[in-house]
Amino acid sequence: MRLLMKSKCYALIILIVMIFLSIGSAARAESEGKLIVHFIDVGDADSILIQQGKRNMLIDAGNDKDSEIIVEYLIKQGVKDIDILIGTHIDEDHIGSMDSVINNFEIAKVYLPNSYSSNKYLEDVMQSLKNKNIQVTEAASGETFNLGNGICTILAPVSRGYEKLNDYSVVMKLQYGETSFLFTGDAESISEKEMMRRGFDLSANVLKLAHHGSISSTGNEFLNRVCPQYAVITAGRNNNYRHPHRSILIRLKNMGIKVYRTDESGTIIAESDGRNISFNKKPGSYLYRGK
Ligand SMILES: [Zn+2]
Predict the structure, then answer these.
(1) Beta bridge mates, 152
(2) Given this model, what pLDDT does residue 26 score?
(3) What is the side-by-side order of every strand in the sheet holding 48-52?
(4) Can you give the C-alpha Rg of the chain in angstroms?
(5) How confident is the model over 56-73, as pLDDT tens digits?
C-alpha cells in the first residue's frame, strides 16, 4: 500500500515536471516565432533593437548622453550578444553611444556606411572596435543577410559620395514572413530617388520615417512606393528641430497611415508573428508640435 502511494506520488511529480517543461518550450517556441522591434525612446535620435529568436540586431545608438538608457534597455531585454550592429551614418544622434554598446556587449558584425569624413563620435566607435579587435563591414547596397528567420537587405547608400551626411544613411528592409519593415536612418530625398531608380521593392508594412519626420525626407513618390500601413517617428518631446514636420504629418494622415511617435508614446515596440503586426502602444496623433 505504502509502495503504491509512493509510486503514485512519483508519477504526479513527473507529470508536473513534464507540464512545466512543455509550458517552457511552448513559450520559447512562441518567442522564437516572433520578430520584436523596439524603437527605444532616445529623444531626437535613433536606437532600434530588433530581436528574432536568439538573434539581436541594433540599428543606431542615440546621442552621446544616451549610453545608460540604451545599455540598460538592452540588458533588460536579456541581450548579451549583438549579432549585427548598424550605424546608419556618423551623426551624433545615431552613433553617439555606439562606443558604450561595443564596450558592454559581444558584437559579431558591424556595418557602417562608407564615409569620407569623420568626427569625434566615429573616432570613439573606431577606438572601441579596435580595442576588441572587431572589423567594420562597409554597408553595400544589395547585400542580404539573415537575422534568425528574418531576411535583411541593405538598400542604401547606393552611391559612394554625397554632399550631406544624412544621405550616407544605411537603409535596410527586413522581411519576416509576410510582413516587412523599412529602416531608413536619416536618408534624404537624394537617397530616396536613388533607391527608386534602382528598382528596389520598397514596399513595407512599417516605415521608420527618415530623419525624425523632417521635410527633407519621405517624399510623396517614395512614400507611395513604400505604401506602409504604419509609420514610426523617432522624435524628441518639444525638440528644437520641430520634428516631425507639419506637411509630413498631413501626408501620412491623407494616406491613412497609422502613426506611432516616440515624442508622444516613449519607447514603442512592434511585434510580428510573420502574418500580423501589433504595437504595444496606441497610435499617436497627426498634431504638429513645433512652435
Ligand atoms: Zn538623425
Answers:
(1) 145, 174
(2) 46
(3) 136-138, 106-112, 81-86, 55-59, 48-52, 35-39, 268-272, 277-279
(4) 21
(5) 999 999 999 999 999 999
CA of 23 to the centre of ligand 1 (A): 42
- State the distance from the centre of ligand 1 to the C-alpha of 38, rounded, in angstroms: 17
3-state secondary structure of 257: coil
- Rounded to whole angstroms, the Cα distance separating 172 from 155 reads 6
Q: Three-state DSSP class for 3?
A: helix
- Residues with Cβ within 8 Å of 24's Cβ and at least 6 positions away in sequence, in order, are none
Q: How many residues does the chain have?
A: 291
Q: Sign of the C-alpha dihedral, residues 169, 276, 255, 267?
A: negative
DSSP code of residue 135: P
Lowest mean pLDDT among 13-22, 31-40, 146-155: 13-22
- The half-sphere exposure of 61 on its side-chain side, counting CA atoms within 13 A, is 34
Tell me the HSE value of 38 on the side-chain side, using a 13 A CA sphere: 20
3-state secondary structure (DSSP) of residue 170: coil
Measured in Å, residue 186 CA sits from the centre of ligand 1 at 5
Question: What confidence score (pLDDT) does residue 24 get?
Answer: 47
What is the mean predicted confidence (pLDDT) over 208-212? 97
